[in-house]
Amino acid sequence: MEGPTRDLTRPLLAYGTLICSLFLVLVAWDTPVPRTDLPTILTATVLTACWIAWWVDLHPGWQRRSGLMAVFLTGLILLNLWLAWCSPLFGIYTWSGYLFIGYAVRGMWPLIVLVPVAAVNAFAQVGGWVTFARADGFVIYLAVLVCNLLIAETMTLIGIRADRRSQSREDRIDVLAEANAKLAAALRENAGLHAQLLVQAHEAGVLNERQRMAGEIHDVLAQGLTGIVTQLEAAESHPAERDRHLVAAKRLARESLTEARRSVQALRPQHLDAARLPEALDEVVRAWAGIHGVRADLTVTGPARPMLPEIETTLLRTAQEALANVARHAAAGRVGLTLSYMEDMITLDVRDDGAGFDPDAPREVTEEGGFGLHAMRERLTRIAGTLEVESEPGGGTAISACVPAIAIGAA
Question: In which order are the strands placed within the sheet that holds 334-341?
Fold first, then answer.
């Protein structure tokens, strides 16, 4: 769409050149310039000015209606031809017809419409109708017309290309504006999603921390208290070994208290403070065997290497929970633990020859127990680990914990 400045420039320039042409006609009235009578000249001039004013100044919205613009251009060309017939001095004005071609016609149509406009201009430039009285008048007119067409066609092609480049830039600007609007909307949506994710992450963090603390309470306090109760009950049932059971109960109480303090501070288990995982597991296994009087052996395969604290802590807690389950439920005579270091994973297998159970009907989680396997699975899941359980009544139990082997410094 053309701006208001260009819309005003065309008619003002047309009015100006029309007045100048009329002025020259009046000034040169006594010269031998071919012309018609004054009333006809004035009538043609007024009608031309009114025609431009009606179609361009008074009805600018008609510019978008191609049918009305065809009527406007046809009438304008005929009026210009009338003026050029009245006097060739109106050739100063008739060239403004090129301007109105750009105003009223789009696409490649200007290349066609400019032919009659050039014909009118050439007619005025050769001196009007008297030129055709000469023998070579028509040849002169054709030569001038060809020159007009060459110039007009060239300038029109340049203008069309410039308009297309301008339209292409405007289209790209529109596309960019639309893309920017979509990007702004996406950014606003992302900001909302980000805020929502922060809330969800906070809630997930709170839930994860609750689960961690539940596991820590079960692994540390519940196991410790269970062991203490077991030792005290054994002391009551076997007076001859009373002192040994009391010493074991005291040791369990001290270890549980230390572990509880460290768990609250979110530190590693006490056994891992000054030892690597195999040594810490060996210490736990020997202590458990000494307390419960059950043979327990630890086997380590593969080159041991330090892992992330979360990995080692989870495996140690899993071993402690598995041994606690053996002590509470299995009535086993022997327990074997195997810690295997592989290239991309670490496995911990715990096997016993105890009473076993039906894995398809595990114990319900109650205030009295049943949380052990569930706690182990939750703890392993938090570090992308898995837990497999194989057992049958009277056939012992085997559990296998598998975790990713993420060494210190690899994360």
Answer: 295-301, 334-341, 345-352, 397-404, 386-391
Rg (CA), the chain: 51
The neighbouring-strand residues paired with 404 are: 345
* Distance, CA of 70 to CA of 62 (rounded, Å): 11
Which long-range contacts (C-beta less than 8 Å, at least 24 apart) are formed by 210-215? 211/378, 211/382, 212/382, 213/263, 214/375, 215/317, 215/375, 215/378, 215/379
Q: Residue 204 has what pLDDT? A: 57
Contact 216, 266 (CB under 8 A): no
Alpha-carbon distance of 138 to 49, in angstroms, equals 30
Distances (CA, A) of 366 to 19, 147, 212, 227, 356: 107, 105, 19, 18, 20
Statement: the pTM of the whole predicted model exceeds 0.85: no
**Length of the chain in terms of residues written:** 411
Residue 408 has pLDDT above 90, yes or no: no
Q: Using DSSP, state whether 411 is helix, strand or coil.
A: coil
Report residue 397: phi and psi, to 5°.
Answer: -140, 145
Q: Confidence band (pLDDT; 50, 70, 90) for 4? A: very low
Contact present, 215 and 317 (Cβ < 8 Å):
yes
Per-residue pLDDT tens over the stretch 72-93: 999 999 999 999 999 999 988 9
Q: Give the residue carrying structure tokens 């195999």.
A: 278
Residues 245 and 238 sit within 8 Å (Cβ to Cβ) = yes
Write the pLDDT tens digit of every residue in 189-239: 876 776 566 456 446 545 665 665 666 565 556 667 777 778 787 778 888
Contacts with 184 (C-beta within 8 Å, 6 or more apart), sequence order:
none
Residues 312-331: what's their mean pLDDT? 89
379 against 212, higher pLDDT = 379
The DSSP line for 380-401 is HHTTT-EEEEEE-TTS-EEEEE
Interhelix angle 110-125/137-216, rounded to 10 degrees, is 150
Here the tokens at position 320 are: 């402690």
